[in-house]
Task: structure prediction
Amino acid sequence: MTRRDKKLPPYSWSEWLPLPGGWSPSPAVLAETLDGGQAFRWQRDAPDVWTGTWSDNVAQLRRTNDLLEWRAPAAISKRVASALPAYLGLDVDWTARADSLPWRSDAHLATCLREFSGLRLLRQPFGETLLGFLCSATKQIVQIKQMVALLAARHGAPLVERVDLNAFGGAGVDAAHLYRLPTWTELAAVPEKELRGCLLGFRARFIHETALFLAKNPAWLAETERLPYVVAKARLLELPGVGEKVADCVLLFGAAQLEAFPVDVWILKTLERRYGLAGWKPARLAQFGRAHFGPLAGYAQQFLFSWERKNRKQ
DNA sequence: TGACAGGGGGTGT
DNA sequence: ACACCCCCTGTC
Result:
């Protein structure tokens, strides 16, 4: 209990409500879904309470008796209520999806599915996903979260009125959650030097140039979001700082393109060690992934990724 | 307790 | 292959 907490007015959060859809992940799987590298705007505020931000939304998730509840700042709870189902994929049958993966003929995949049972893919806003993964090159999750938190705090609009901001403080929420991420339009007005001030390093130039490009091509993002996988990926690859891996992440986490198969260092290790594909180039591995795991390869990838990262010492 | 390497979920040349 | 930035972490 800090001195600051005592001065604060009472909560202005909405009531806790049950999360529709019957998702009951273990604490570890909930953590892996929200904070395992898909999204960079969730934080654990208590052992079973998470607070996250996307677009103009702020939500808390709470695990009680293996069930999930949610709430939002009262001032925006209606908006959050309508945005939450799509973001968390509450209307998607993830169990059926997992079951459709080729685990019957793939013992390692079966292990990963068992260990991370209940894992989901988030459906994040396309533009924000692009921004997050432009920050991700040679960075770990902690550092990426720090970068986007600074971008939001310095260049994003506040999400709720000040009275609500105080209530957030009372809930122990980090200040970064009080601001939304800057839009690409807003980013286009930020000098590269100020971006560097957000700990972006060499990524600042990529983000700056991407922002300028998107400002000149206002419909580009929205169009790309609804194009088929192959075409959308080709377009993303035109952006500075976007290569194969980042493009696939953006499409998988920000456009629900489940055939996208990002090959990062962890998947590289998985395919090398567990699938005997040592020496293969990333592009060929991605091709293998889509062929072997099928149309939901990206979902399979998330299980493999989580397992490999958890067992990083092996 | 303060320096000091080493390395980090990639991209571009 | 190597540079790009530079923060974080582990170590001495």
User: Anything to note?
Assistant: The first strand of chain A starts at residue 17 and ends at 18. Residues 137-140, 142-143, 146, 196, 199-205 of chain A lie near DNA strand C (CB under 10 Å from a C1'). The domain at 3-92 of chain A is CATH 3.30.310 (TATA-Binding Protein). The first helix of chain A runs from residue 3 to 7.
